[in-house]
Amino acid sequence: MTTYLITRPPAKATALTSALLEQDAEAKLLYAPILDPVGTEPEDWEEVAFALIRGEFSWVTFTSVNGVLGLDTLAQGLGQSLVELLGTAQIAAVGRATEAALVERGLLVDFVPETQSAAGMVDEWLIDEEWDNPMGETILAVQGTTASPTLEEGLTDYGYTVATLPVYDMLPYPAANPLTDQNPAETDAQSGSALTLGEAVTALATTDVLIATSP
């Protein structure tokens, strides 16, 4: 029997759990999350929200599922769905998981790079042929509080005006009220519960495969 140690909470590792168990039904899966995403409300949130509703952003970019969850939470606080909030803005997602989270909420994703990273988004960004120069076009980058400036700087270099909206922070696990799109109680019973740091250190001695994922 192979023992896997995964650095995510069980509720956020369901797809990985299913894939591993499909390959090896006898696998032992342990979870040792390090950080939890927690929603934040930026000081200028209401101003940004009204700008979104007025259609002032040409594009809205998402560089993680956590960003989708964070903005969705803020939108719900205003009594809005993401579809209502984002209106006619074009949507860019960093990868397939982020795209799936947006599609689940009724949004059409216009751009997903082949290289699933902020750098990939910049390298593969599609300049609308109708715009000889993107000057005057504004992009909203939805991200975490500690996000790399790669996307913002890259799009700014193209001539866009880029506004950033930090909608979540990463706190030590377990954090109160973490962002999640799944009730932990609904997680497959085979997944089990998350280990404490001490338990995880002990478990490493008998772990065959360590899977380090993004939080």
TrEMBL record:
Residues 27-214 form the Tetrapyrrole biosynthesis uroporphyrinogen III synthase domain. GO terms for biological process: uroporphyrinogen III biosynthetic process. It holds the Pfam family HEM4. It comes from the Bacteria. GO terms for molecular function: uroporphyrinogen-III synthase activity. SUPFAM superfamilies: HemD-like. InterPro entries: 4pyrrol_syn_uPrphyn_synt_sf, 4pyrrol_synth_uPrphyn_synth, UROS/Hem4. This is Uroporphyrinogen-III synthase.
